[in-house]
């Protein structure tokens, strides 16, 4: 059974509702981690969460990181990275998207910033949600991005879509989210950010 999505205006309203964002709340890889032990504290970073409004149905843009990268090689991610001095999260997300996939920073319409997500490597990531109207021309940097693909936005409105899995990390069992995709494994920080976006969008 196909899901009837809210209108773009309704989705924008949900993303700009402080109460809905507060109910979603900040997330962390592990609430028990002592982030104060990292020199200088958590590293501020941002990712762009682009929603492309195709006539056939909107999709969330994702990247497959290059297998040659030293960190998180071959994993699914949003375009993004650490903030440079003086940058806002929105500016950093747009700059990183331009560098990684060649997205013209003038095109995204910023809709909202989601609550921060703390990663297991000590980054405090601000997800910046933006709307894009097709056609969207992208030129991925092959040194950083192996492929670009989309996850149907409709999946984020289906509470049964994501699954919960477990793995051992640093001697402890950790639970994590996985979103279904025919070709790519969507897990880790990317899956958690998608989960938080899903919670906000599904708020009535």
Automatic annotation (TrEMBL):
Keywords: Hydrolase, Magnesium, Manganese, Metal-binding. InterPro entries: CoAse, NUDIX_hydrolase_CS, NUDIX_hydrolase_dom. Residues 42-172 form the Nudix hydrolase domain. Its EC number is 3.6.1.55. It comes from the Bacteria. GO terms for molecular function: 8-oxo-7,8-dihydrodeoxyguanosine triphosphate pyrophosphatase activity. CDD domains: NUDIX_CoAse_Nudt7. Its cofactor is Mn(2+); Mg(2+). The keyword Manganese applies. This is NUDIX hydrolase.
